[in-house]
Amino acid sequence: MRLGAQGSRILGEVIGTFLFVLTIPLASIGVGSLSAIPIGFMLSAMTFCFAYVSGAHFNPAITIAVFFIGRMHIVRVGMYIAAQCGAALLATLYAAIIVGVDMPAPQARSLKAVWRALMTESVFSFAVASVVLHCMYSRQRKNNFFGFAIGMTVLAGALSVGGFNGGAFNPAVATGTQLGKCVLSGDCEPLAMLWVFWAAPAAGSFAASMFYNILDTAPPKDARREDANRLADFH
């Protein structure tokens, strides 16, 4: 059985997001403070694996950034974000079967934690979105290092600020893990501050897209044709 192009894209996002998010609680319990290393490498692997299928976003902030540079239709944006959040929730539930409900999740329970989360999530989401846009959508997009660049940026960010708030840089990760813990353990208090883990990455991705549009002033003609073909799917 073969899926259409749109179905393949969504399935690619679901599989890649599921495996990436599954690594987060398992690595956090398995190797503790070194968890950013397997998380970063898994993201690199999933990016190399599914980039040709869906663009390998696995992150609503990336999808938003790609939309802001005019490379995605709004309908596909909604489908990608729904797929990413659903896959993240499934990954959290699956991880709970393996290690139980006592899993880490990005959260901000105090005013100081909210402030730190807004600052760190926005700046490192900006970094991740910038790397994605400049490595996968610019004139240098036909390279062999994009997966490593993206994964290592997440690894660096997680090692730098993960101890403050969990270092998600990804609204799907925060949504899936917080919803999963709410369903499984009844700890629903962090959901009151879930907006922080959407607003900050969205702001960072928007800034990344603005700087991308300023810096990459002459995309190649074949890139414009590819984008026109993608957008035409919904017209």
TrEMBL record:
A GO term for molecular function: water channel activity
Pfam families per UniProt: MIP
Topology class, membrane: Multi-pass membrane protein
Gene3D superfamilies per record: Glycerol uptake facilitator protein
Stored PROSITE patterns: MIP (PS00221)
Main localization, broad class: membrane
Domain of life: Eukaryota
Membrane-spanning ranges: 12-37, 43-69, 81-101, 113-133, 145-164, 195-215
InterPro entries referenced in this protein's UniProt entry, alphabetically: Aquaporin-like, Aquaporin_transptr, MIP, MIP_CS
Gene Ontology annotations of biological process type: one-carbon compound transport
Keywords noted in UniProt: Membrane, Repeat, Transmembrane, Transmembrane helix, Transport
Entry's localization field: Endomembrane system
GO cellular component term, pick one: endomembrane system
Family designation: Belongs to the MIP/aquaporin (TC 1.A.8) family.
PANTHER family cross-referenced by the UniProt entry: AQUAPORIN-8 (PTHR45665:SF9)
Name of this chain's protein: Aquaporin
Species in which this protein is naturally found: Neobodo designis
